[in-house]
Design a protein that fits this description.
Length: about 220
């Protein structure tokens, strides 16, 4: 057995380790940002994104940045957050890694966005048809061995996905995408010392969303 596999005992441990979070409560300003992101997705869907004078916007941003949200999303070339949420340079502080899961460097980046740039909303953005989630399901299912450092990526993602394997409910791939988002939202909410403290004092909200490759729609999960 390689370290890219998981035993039934480990799955049971993961199950008991999962604690359901109370619903995240957004204040008015955070809700306004969520509404703005979803409105941007609606423009993207309608094929009528806002027009930009990128030259003027670039000049305006030379003095600094105040992104309205931080996004943890997948590296997948089909899911660029700025485009599918129709946001401009300076709007989003984006961390991308295949499988949109929390890494050390990604966490440090998000902490920078929250602590220094005062971003008050983090969105973990998964997507349907995610290759990293699919690869993790494949390893869990048949204990296949992936080449190079891809095995490391899958090893990190397994805890968030493994318990979905225990259910006979349909749409395993889609359930796994959502489970991966929820798992990483929880990881960020409990991340010490910065993010957990900001969540506790109401300065930060961390939510999950999924982008549907087929419809183009972003849905909060
Ligand atoms: Zn993906």
């Amino acid at each position: 057995m390689t370290d890219a596999t998981i035993t039934p005992d480990q799955i049971a441990q993961l199950q008991t380790a999962v604690v359901d979070e109370p619903d995240t409560v957004l204040d008015a300003a955070q809700q306004a940002v969520v509404d703005a992101l979803l409105a941007g997705n609606a423009r993207f869907l309608a094929g009528c994104p806002e027009q930009h004078d990128y030259s003027a916007e670039r000049t305006a941003l030379t003095e600094g940045q105040s992104p309205v949200a931080a996004i943890l999303s997948c590296s997948d070339s089909r899911v660029p957050p700025e485009l599918l949420l129709d946001q401009a340079p300076g709007d989003l502080f984006v961390v991308r890694v295949a499988g949109n899961f929390v890494t050390g460097e990604g966490l440090a980046s998000l902490e920078y966005g929250v602590e220094l740039l005062k971003t008050r909303l983090i969105v973990v953005l998964g997507h349907t048809g995610c290759g990293a989630v699919g690869a993790t399901l494949g390893v869990l299912r048949d204990q296949s061995i992936l080449p190079g450092h891809i095995a490391h990526l899958v090893r990190e993602m397994k805890p968030g996905i493994a318990r979905e394997m225990l259910s006979d409910a349909p749409h395993l791939a889609e359930r796994a995408v959502v489970a991966n988002v929820h798992y990483n939202v929880r990881r960020l909410i409990h991340s010490e010392p910065i993010l957990s403290a900001r969540v506790a004092d109401g300065e930060l909200a961390i939510i999950g969303a999924v982008y549907d490759l087929n419809t183009g729609q972003v849905v909060l999960v």
